Amino acid sequence: MLRFFTSGESHGQALVSIIEGFPANVSVDISFINTELKRRMGGYGRGARMKIESDQIEILAGVRHGYTLGSPIAFLIRNRDWVNWVGTMSPEPNPEGAKKRRVTRPRPGHADLVGALKYQFQDMRNVLERSSARETTSRVGVGGFAKLLLKELGIVVYSHIISIKDVHLSDQGLEEVSSDLIPQIESSEMRCADPSLDETMKKAVDQAIEKGETVGGTFEVRATGVPPGLGSYVHWDRKLDGQLARAIMSINAIKGVEVGSGLESDPYGSQYHDEIFYDEKGRRFYRKTNHAGGIEGGTSNGEEIIVRGIVKPIPTLRQPLMSVDFESKEPFKAQYERSDTCIVPAAGVIGEAMVSIVLAQAVQEKFGGDTLQEIQTNLKNYRSALKEV
């Protein structure tokens, strides 16, 4: 079963990832994965760090001559900003300049204080370096590998932005979203499917910058080509929607997850649930609506998977909130670390990565196989069997 580990600090030498259980013979397009990393760095309202970094993966193991070997895949992504933090982040004891960036003022909304209490640190730099969203760069890299596997199986994962602060995509606009709009979404700095909302969303970000504030919003991840039967209704921890919810909630700044749509309108049950039909020609069951987001009873039903993530305004503010110094216990304005104003477009890209990883795991659980060819054969046989039902 596919699983992964990430390691590294925000201003350390590099981010390191290991993927275990990835099938053999999957073609690895390094330029595609690097493009995914670049997509994460984009979006209107990003901070100065994105101007410093130029994220690219360096594969260390598990890939030979452009194909996966079935053995653990190891890759790293170097932090270009490391040169400015060598003394502060050095693994050696008592390096020169180590105390210059010591942190004792916890920032509200971050892991600074709870991390220091948990691990009994006197310098919260130890916490914020790992709790930083910089770690999600590794996850996008892992998600790139998962996407390459899913693509071989006819599954495409994409995302778009539903809202930035109080600027929302209309209900009609939401109904019109499809994979056909991916070029439009990717050409937009806000990653919105409706180009008419770009400037209004940017204005909301600009207003926040002027006020020293930050803004949140909502992104939506969709997956097409997903066969019915992924996940399970049998055990709580194997439910696909539960796994997706956990994956999205694990992303920094996410405070809520919705699978499917329609709940915000407070509908009756007859208005929400998706009626079932049968296509005699295609020999398949289908639904004309998709309020369930492609999942019923914890199991994919063959419709497009739809998952939303609600992103809070990130807590690093140019006008810091009040806090208490960890050592003196005196009140201070919380420490400011350079940051973004809006990370919703980037969060959508990270959401794609996490959904892709979960779907790749679910595919392996359902169809097994040590190689891509085995999985493809098992999936093909399964799809054929469904037409005989």
- Integer average pLDDT: 93
Strand residue percentage: 15-25%
Name of the CATH architecture? 4-Layer Sandwich
Overall domain count: 1
Ranges where pLDDT stays below 50 over 5 or more residues in a row are none
Give the C-alpha Rg. 22 Å
**Shape descriptor:** globular
* Tally of contiguous helical segments: 13
Structural class: alpha+beta
Spatially, the strands of the biggest sheet line up as: 8-7-9-15-10
Largest sheet: 5 strands, antiparallel
N-C termini distance = 29 Å
CATH topology call = Chorismate synthase, AroC fold
For the record, what CATH class applies? Alpha Beta
Look at the structure and name the CATH superfamily.
Answer: Chorismate synthase AroC
Element order: H for helix, E for strand? EEHHEEEEHHHHEEHHHEHEHEEEEEEEHH
What does this structure look like?
- With 389 residues, the protein is α+β, with helices and mostly antiparallel strands.
- It is globular, with a radius of gyration of 22 Å.
- The protein contains 13 helices and 17 strands.
- A hairpin with a 6-residue loop joins strand 16 (322-324) and strand 17.
- 41% of the residues are buried.
- It has one domain: Chorismate synthase, AroC fold, CATH 3.60.150.
- The mean pLDDT is 93.
- A 5-stranded antiparallel beta sheet has the order 8-7-9-15-10.
